[in-house]
Amino acid sequence: MKAVGARLPRYDGIQHVTGRTVYVDDVRVPGMLWAKALRSPVPRAEVKRLDVTKARSLPGVHAIVTHEDVPLNVYGHLEALGVPADEPLLAADDVRWKGQAIAVVAAEDEATAREAVEAIDLDLEEGEPLLDVRKAFDPDAPQIHHWGNWYPHFEDGMDRRQIRKGDVASAFDRADVVVKGVYRPAAIEHVPLETQISLSVPEAGGRITIYSCTQAMYFSMGVVAAHLQVPLNRLKFVGGTVGGGFGGKVDTASETVTALLALKSRRPVKWRWTREEEFLASSTRAPWHMEIADAVTSDGWILGRKTLTLHDSGAYARFSPYGLTKHAFHHLGAYTIPDVHFDGYVVFTNRVPTTAMRGFGVTSVSFAVETHMNRIAEVLGIDPFELRLKNGNRIGDTTANGVVLHDPSTVAVAQALAKASGIELADDLGAMTNAPRSGALLPEHLAAQQVVNGKEH
Amino acid sequence: MKLTVNGAVHEVESPPLTTLLAVLREELRITSPKAGCEQGGCGACTVLVAGEARRACLLPLAALDGAEVTTVEGLGTPEQLGRVQEAFLERYAAQCGYCTSGMMMAAEALLRSNPSPSRDEIQTALGGHVCRCTGYVKIIEAVEAAAGGAR
Questions:
Q1: B89 and B133 part of one domain
Q2: In this structure, what CATH number is given to the domain that contains residue B106?
Q3: Among residues A77, A98, A417, B128, which is most buried (max CB within 10 A)?
């Protein structure tokens, strides 16, 4: 156990502090071209005309790719988990978000590539965008996705992620108070200091070496191979050095396009997104809309919870059905509530597709739940720590989706929080543990869902 | 155009309006300064010009004839680290490493002009530098350590 508690040097620290770490942008290969993208200037439009003939004839331009050059243009990041494909690598008949890539140019230098992008003949017919998840369900809302305005492909063809546990109507009948709250954390861009970047080098014999900033090497390799319709052994990924990711580099943002351009131009191609592109076109943490109503007793027990979540997926599904599933699993926070009714929708909008970021799907609902706990304490006029410790998960409690807890840490964490905040807990709260519920901590509404010694009562 | 970088004199051939960042990275292949935003907003490209911390992405070559430039490569080597490098390594001030070069150059410039800065002065000197990994605390502690040991 030499490592536990020891201060070990970072394995990559010496390279970092001597400036010798080789990120993708630091790789130089002879004959390298630079890529630039034509991106949609509007959030929603039909593509009426896309003509790259003039741009292709400019001196210094070596290749341009559009949807026509992608062997499999529409591919789903989560097809392996049953989420069907909906997102084109390069926009074809329509654009669904401002910044969506339509064509990408490879040229001798970035300035030439930019000129070629400007020379592409693009005619768009703008449509009314949907930008607010709350309007997606209105009968007169613009219909912006070919599946409808919300994701319809959960298990058994359901159009939402739902949880039903216990008898929520009875819980609300028995409640002394109903505490409601609406929580709307905004989108957050990851802002890695290294923007999205890749360098694809065509090798003799048809292989492609791809220098990538991905956070998910083998996943990204699969994405590129699928779009290109080549076996994995045609691709050699070089990665593992990421200049900041935070979830945003799980998406395979640029690798497929540079690989296509490298094949087409027979030259190495680097695509380094500008900071503006990173903000405009790289995926963000999703904005969420959460409505919570809790049935509570005046002495601080939460009998039941109803939740409606609208997860803003942006223009395509990408990872959002998975993010919403995690969100649903965690939507009671670290607390035990026996009667539960949860409906969550993955809603499409004409915004940049959203993705993972530090606790994918969970951080939003943790924020909502903890804020809601404070609100309940305020409404009831009781100590927010007492509320948390009373309702906090204990051994033998079950979660909303039926997981029996064997070693939950809510009590210890709440006590540590109080200590770190300089808050003195009452003796009974300070002495609490996560031992199975009994006595005053096992009120009637929780007795029925206790599992002790593996047996359900 | 003549440019002295880390003590070595270079005849550079890039056009006069090329940024110092592009000259260093693309012509001289000195890659410690990073292109984080290319508009002076993030600090990742910071180098010393005549001992002062400057954003290499905003400086045209034309304004730099004969200038002396220092990058991280000029602070030390893996075998013999400079004081700022050593402190950043020991204090875990580098995580992904992409902002680290710029942070260290800003710290170096500060310590050259103010060998024993206060915490406020360190924060001011690093104020225009963005880091998304560390939350800045370890970086500030590293600069304090480089200035003369832990406080």
A1: yes
A2: 1.10.150.120
A3: A77
